[in-house]
Amino acid sequence: MQHKEESKKFYITTTLPYVNAKPHIGFALEIVQADTIARYKKLIGYEVFFNTGTDEHGQKIYDKALEEGKDPQAYVDEYAEKFRVLKDVLGLDEESLHFIRTSDPHHKHAAQVFWQRCAENGDIYQKLYKIKYCVGCELEKTDSELVDGRCPLHPNAELELREEENYFFRFSKYQQALLALYAARPDFVIPDFRQNEITLFVERGLEDFSISRLKAKMPWGVPVPGDDEHVMYVWFDALINYISTLGWPEDEEKFREFWGTLEKPNAIQLAGKDNLRQQTAMWQAMLLSAGLPNSKQVKIGGFITSGGQKMSKSLGNVIDPLEIVAEHGTDALRYYLLRHAHPFEDSDFSEEKFIEAYNANLANGIGNLVARVMTLAEAHVASPVAVEDRPFEWAIGEQIERYALNEAMDLIFEEVAKGDLYMQEHEPYKAIKSGDEAAREKAKADIIKMVRHIYHIAEHLAPFMPETAQKIKDTVKANKKPETLFARK
Questions:
Q1: Residue 364 and residue 257 in one domain
Q2: pTM higher than 0.90 for the full model?
Q3: Do 13 and 268 meet the contact criterion of CB atoms below 8 Å apart?
Q4: How does pLDDT run across 231-258, given as a tens digit for each residue?
Q5: 148 and 74 part of one domain
Q6: Number of domains in the chain
Q7: Which of 100, 122, 450, 470 has its CA 20 to 30 A from that of 442?
Q8: Rounded to 5 degrees, what are φ and ψ at 263?
Q9: What is the pLDDT of residues 453-483, one digit of tens each?
Q10: CATH number for the domain that contains residue 25
């Protein structure tokens, strides 16, 4: 991620989730992380383009639509809305957010232009092939990737054996170019162990991958230019959203400003560990083929588990972020995901852990501190305390730049603890009732100091918990005790 002096434009994107199921908490984590980074960059002066949306083609979606007796377009229209509501449910920044659907006409056009560029570069050809295919991943699997003959990510699904003539992308051609990219940019993939992982994958040799499907078997996809019998393979089409969202190929200026140039890449991507190969190797090779700049950096996160197990419908342990927000509020979920989910490793989520953290740090922490301070201010300070907006503190910003959002949150909540300690040691709530005028004046000064302290906390909370931050700022400016920020559970 670049610092302020390097560029005034900032681009960040999540992956696009498939619309074959409702939003899950793993994607909520990714999109809230991206939103927090986007809000921070905007706070320190950047014009931000924050991309997310829905991946709407492919076998899984086609099969699901048929299963429900729906036209595929009607099916994806319905499910895309379930993801669009995340904007409000998760408190995403409306100003910088751009929502793309891969069934958008412009995206389809951009995918076809991209295809033609790769074809003109000699990187697309046809051949007959036979593979083991995981519909869950929408990827072919080699024997070395299987566990007991099954995909480890979808162990309950039978692999499909496929044999047909498809178009292929010359992935193998880009082995050395990808290795050179990783070597030149040791922080291209964050964290470093993921960069090591993808480097080893590429070093072992790359197999060309299929980028089309026979329309007669699976018609739900972007038409292949010049061949009515094929549609594009979902991964080839979907990855192009990262640039089609910018108006590429028509809007070259916007593309250069936000995505970057060959000399100065600018695009930050967030993805889960199951997307490592697609985002950091396949997509980067495709960009090289099309003569376009690579991403600047790809941050890879872990999964959210439940009770130590991967979430799955069959186990009944899938956590719905919409239900959590409905019961506990947007910022309560944002708080937990940003502070208690690790930015790079798997993290476990349970109702018990969530409630424990909620009560300790929200209800009894920031909520209680703000209530105590503003109760005193309303009663004993005649007018609103004068406050000044300060520059965002670099110690916190540095952690955001490193994607260590949990550590950034720790620093903010250290300030909450300092506020509690100051109240405990100075006891302005007692001293303000003293018969000694000097003691009362000292207590009033302490109250004013604490009002400014909670306002400063709110400034730093703004990217993480924007609704709460605004409520604290409003209560300070109104000099009124707020309604309970976080009711104890």
A1: no
A2: yes
A3: yes
A4: 999 999 999 999 999 999 999 999 999 9
A5: yes
A6: 2
A7: 470
A8: -80, -30
A9: 999 999 999 999 999 999 999 999 999 999 9
A10: 3.40.50.620
